[in-house]
Amino acid sequence: MTPAERKSIADRYESRIVRGYVSGKLKHDPVYDAVLARLDPSPRPMLDLGCGVGILPLCLQARGLGREVVGVDLDIRKIEQARRAIPQSMNARFLHQDLRAPLDDFSGDVMMLDVLHYFSDDDQSQILNHAARYAADGMIIIRDCLRDNSWRYRLTVLQESFSGAIRWLQAQMLNFPTRDIISNTLRGHGFAEEVTPLWGRTPFNNYLMVYRRPARN
Asked: What pLDDT, in 10s, does the model give residues 98-151?
């Protein structure tokens, strides 16, 4: 994103600490540009599971990609920050809700950015199965650290543990998924996968995983 876009987004937040966090995230984390580059030109609604303070919908607005966005997060502090930051002119709403609880009224694209690793294996499968239902006619984009034996993985675990210690994250556990847990679940629903390393200039073991159903003949 351009410096002007980053500043415009960060300035939406009231807290100086959150502004600094958002600005740094947009500058150093390649995930938002990667997601925006892979979105289909579609008016489908977007579900942002683990939406945090609502950065993704503001990125969509900055790029002129107007979509209905539903953000879900269990951290009420971040939901409240997102609600205050998002202008009323945007078609966005934020729900304080457990990601494991189903949303019966949603159909569209699903985003899960850095969220699956806060859940057990069984819960990850449940969330992925819900996502497959939500994205019956859409796509699923996941960014997460994958569990392996690399030095990047070990460093990511240390970084996430520190974030929990300073209470920025309210997760009860850290359980990084394997590629098989994600891919096998979504392949079972007919999705094809694209998996790309996405650590950019960071030392973290992040991957971008894009799931689409093959086009029907």
From this structure: 999 999 889 999 999 999 999 999 999 999 999 999 998 899 999 999 999 899
For the entire predicted model, the pTM comes to 0.92
Ordered domains of the chain (ranges, CATH) = 3-212 (3.40.50.150)
Looking from the CA of 37 toward its CB, the CA atoms found within 13 Å total 7
Q: Of 181, 207, 176, 177, nearest to 194 (Cα)?
A: 207
* Predicted local distance difference test score (pLDDT) of residue 41: 82
Judge contact between 27 and 5, C-beta under 8 A. no
The answer for 49, left when phi > 0, alpha when psi is -120 to 50, beta otherwise, is beta
* C-alpha distances in Å from residue 201, one per residue of 24, 28, 190, 197, 205: 13, 7, 33, 11, 11
